[in-house]
């Protein structure tokens, strides 16, 4: 199936820089942003030497999300109705035949966002979309203004508070739809039943697309995919606005569904969980869009390699890191990289999280207060970086570029 994948030229903050002209020097810089599981703090670490180059106080448990450019990282604290923004100090500028890299100080920006339970942050082009589960709204945030210490925000009505998501598509916004007729207990949120498109004035365009218990989204090339109970809902640009297509899970698949999706950067495809111990590869344009991959134990975390486009990395609860070839759908190698971390217990319990930084898969190991740098070719541990507390959510920003 994956042989039908369509190659697409996309820029990624993690793609290695193109060779610069001889008059310029080449430099590589990677920075890690790590939220502690228990303490209200985010660490900024220079991956080259392991130095802490920033320590930012927040309110509580933090979910980190990078912008598409890599210039900012959003630190969403849903339990405290707060979002902070960190300037990474990494800035790429494209010059056609090469990219320039500028490295400056990382810092906490003065601009903050407040609202009832901010959770999902979606990066897209030059902006980010922040969804407030209990606020009945989403906000489209201009990144350039943020870096100047200003707020440029467009608010989108989400009909009713719910645990949802919003994604931009051209001049439209795709917004999850809650069930407004069902009664829920106090403190609970209504289930999601679909997706709708609205213009920038908030007017609905076309009909609502059904998607039971919508959860998880990802963008690849020009299309966006969403996880549903009955399949994967795909949205693509159309003449009169976004167009929706449901890709039902095959009847031969075991009973499960997807709730976390990742989108390919150099190729148009998606990788999603399918229950707890399987993943699926999705080619939305193929006659048979799904390929099922079974894992030996339950998945703890997974991530795509934006530079090595065939590679996906999956950490399972036995402590093994698996390399999945997204073209063949085969696990091509694996190695033990941490102690076992059981999936039993609360979903927020401290477990490893993954990032990709050049030639390394970067893994937080909260039990041992370490960041482990695993070589993507050998799966051997090259070195570790100690981090106080319980390092949890992690984002890697960087790459290579020319300096003049």
From TrEMBL:
The lineage of its organism: Bacteria, Pseudomonadati, Pseudomonadota, Alphaproteobacteria, Hyphomicrobiales. Transmembrane segments: none annotated. The keyword Signal applies. Keywords: Signal. InterPro entries: AztD-like (IPR047697), Quino_amine_DH_bsu (IPR011044). The keyword Transcription regulation does not apply. It comes from the Bacteria. Residues 1-24 form the signal peptide. SUPFAM superfamilies: YVTN repeat-like/Quinoprotein amine dehydrogenase. This is YVTN family beta-propeller protein.
